[in-house]
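Budget justification aside, the reviewers requested a transparent look at the raw inputs and outputs of the sequence design task funded under Objective 1. We therefore reproduce one unedited record. The lines immediately below are the structure tokens for a 286-residue chain.
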């Protein structure tokens, strides 16, 4: 059970890393997440059931997520629609897109190959494949984010989130940075959706409900537990925050609480994490 939970924590951490790029770096919330996450799973599962290899199907899911981010970015920057409303519009529209892609509200991967099956030749104990695949993908995503944010383009992206007016005065095309950020963020989120769908063996159009809370919990838990960190350390803290969050959910299950209400437990955990720093400040101010 613990091994399975850690594996799930790694796969959900990818979602947290995607949300980090908009919520913390660009400094705005993107509700497209609740659409791009199941979209990645829906496109990936549909591709696999049509004979596409799991790796290519996962990449197609990522591309679908990036297109969702592009749609939100264009509504936000060119249509001048507030970011929250832009995200809601795209999230709602993606429901129909997923129905069109899957031809039904959900789709199973029964008797289909998955990305985790690529490690079958190692004869690993149950659920270790999720840990290994999760670690490999996390290394690629974390490495990619660090390399990107240390390029000139990445520095312009960070400057856009830090101080948009200053960034514009330096000649940075801030609208392009926002669109780019939304595309990369939602691509990573869709990657998480594609991996989770393969892990659970099915895709469902309702899978995205409440996932933004899980992603934010990973970020907030990491910040709460580890405090001020470098960029690399912050990304690792998100991964650890995701694993800890999944362990907390495991505790809820082990306590035999009704899992029908799992999302309210998730919201309570996140609310506690958000309130905790305020208690720290008050305690420090005494």
């Amino acid at each position: 059970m613990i091994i399975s939970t850690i594996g799930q924590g790694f796969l959900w951490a990818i979602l947290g890393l995607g949300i980090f790029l908009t919520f913390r770096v660009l400094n705005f919330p993107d509700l497209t997440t609740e659409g791009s996450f199941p979209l990645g799973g829906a496109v990936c599962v549909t591709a696999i059931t049509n004979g596409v290899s799991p790796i290519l199907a996962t990449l197609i899911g990522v591309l679908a997520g990036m297109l969702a981010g592009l749609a939100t970015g264009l509504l936000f920057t060119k249509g001048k629609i507030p970011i929250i409303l832009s995200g809601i519009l795209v999230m709602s529209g993606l429901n129909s897109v997923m129905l069109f892609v899957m031809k039904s509200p959900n789709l199973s991967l029964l008797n289909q190959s998955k990305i985790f099956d690529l490690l079958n030749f190692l004869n690993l104990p149950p659920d270790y494949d999720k840990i290994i695949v999760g670690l490999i993908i996390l290394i690629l995503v974390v490495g990619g984010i660090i390399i990107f944010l240390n390029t000139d383009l990445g520095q312009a992206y960070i400057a856009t989130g830090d101080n948009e007016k200053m960034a514009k005065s330096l000649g940075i095309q801030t609208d392009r940075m926002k669109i780019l950020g939304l595309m990369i963020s939602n691509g990573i989120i869709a990657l998480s959706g594609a991996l989770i769908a393969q892990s659970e063996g099915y895709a469902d159009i309702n899978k995205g409900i409440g996932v933004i809370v899980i992603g934010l919990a990973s970020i907030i838990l990491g910040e709460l537990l580890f405090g001020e960190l470098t960029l690399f350390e912050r990304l690792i803290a998100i991964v650890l925050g995701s694993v800890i969050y999944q362990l907390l959910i495991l505790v809820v299950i082990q306590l035999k609480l009704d899992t029908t209400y799992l999302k309210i437990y998730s919201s309570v955990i996140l609310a506690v994490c958000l309130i905790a720093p305020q208690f720290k400040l008050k305690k420090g101010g005494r």
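Strands lie at 106-108, 202-204. The longest strand covers residues 106-108. Computational costs for records of this kind are itemized in the attached budget.
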